[in-house]
Structure formats: C-alpha cells, structure tokens
Design brief:
This protein is of the alpha+beta class. It is built from 5 helices and 5 strands; from the N terminus they run E-H-H-E-E-E-H-E-H-H. It has helices at residues 12-25, 36-43, 96-111, 125-133, 149-156, and strands at 2-6, 51-57, 60-72, 77-87, 116-118. Helix 3 (96-111) links the parallel strand 4 (77-87) and strand 5 (116-118). Helix 1 (12-25) packs across helix 2. It is globular, with a radius of gyration of 17 Å.
C-alpha cells in the first residue's frame, strides 16, 4: 500500500504541486517564487543539490520529503537536512510521515552519516508533538537565521 521512491523528471508537476500545498498549509504561499523549472533544474541535473522522495499510497502520490546533504564539522560527517516534509491531508494518519522520516534516517544510517535535521514552525503543535514522539530533540537553544533579498545583497557587498 505504501511505497517510497526518488522523484523522477516526469514527477516535477506533482513535486511542485506538493510544494504549493505545503506553502498553503504553512500560510507562506506568498513566499513561493520558485518555478517548476527552478526545482527541476536542481533535482534532475548531473550533480543534484536537492533530492526528493515521494510517498505513494496505493499508487497515488500522498506526500514528499525534500532534502539536501549538509555537514557536521563536529562529527566530521555529512547528514541530511530535511527542507520540506508534507503529507496531503487525505492521506494523514496512515504512518506516511513517519515512513518518510524513517526512510531518511535509514539513508543516514546506511551511508554512515551523522544526523537527520530539520526545522518546524513554532505554531505547528501537531507536527511538534509528532516529531517528539519519534525521538526528535527540539533545539530551543538554537535560533534559525537567514539573510534574503536586499539584506543578502547588502551583505554580499561586504565581501572583499
């Protein structure tokens, strides 16, 4: 009933649809400026920098995990940073989210990588409860930072 597989180029439409559905769920649709071509260009190139695993329930795409390889200098090993995890509402409560996370954890274990890491919005209580039930450690002593747009351009100007 449930299978997980790597996204293929002919899946780009559904991958982009899932990105849009996730953005709607997170109330961040206004931030989506990427196009299908943008996402396809990094997923399906000769040396991908982004990966996508699709969960199918009875042959229908039910959710996805979008991730990339990061690195722990303390551990001296790569890991996975999970950028997006989303299960369509009609498919929730079937263990699909747990299966996707288990799949990524197995990837880390199989490759000898150090960690599986992600962020969660602080208002998303159902996801926080779910992640804690799986043994995830919420790192309250760390604050996520990002620089975008004009601030990114201004910071770039400080480069020697």
């Amino acid at each position: 009933m449930l299978s997980i597989r790597r996204a293929r180029p002919d899946d780009i439409g559904v991958v982009f649809a899932l990105i849009s559905e996730l953005a709607d769920y997170e109330k961040l649709a206004h931030e989506v400026v990427a196009t299908e071509a943008d996402i396809a260009g990094v997923l399906f190139c000769e040396h991908p920098t982004l990966f996508c695993d699709l969960a199918e329930w009875n042959g229908e795409v039910a959710g996805f995990a979008v991730w990339f390889v990061n690195f722990s200098t303390f551990a001296g090993k790569p890991g996975i940073y999970l950028e997006d995890l989303f299960v369509r509402p009609a498919f929730r409560r079937n263990g699909i989210g747990q299966a996707l996370l288990g799949h990524l954890a197995a990837t880390c274990v199989d490759k000898g990588w150090a960690r599986l890491q992600w962020s969660v919005l602080d208002w998303n209580a159902p996801s926080i409860t779910f992640y804690k039930s799986l043994g995830a450690e919420l790192m309250d002593d760390w604050t996520l930072c990002k620089v975008t747009g004009a601030a990114l351009a201004q910071l770039a100007e400080k480069a020697p």
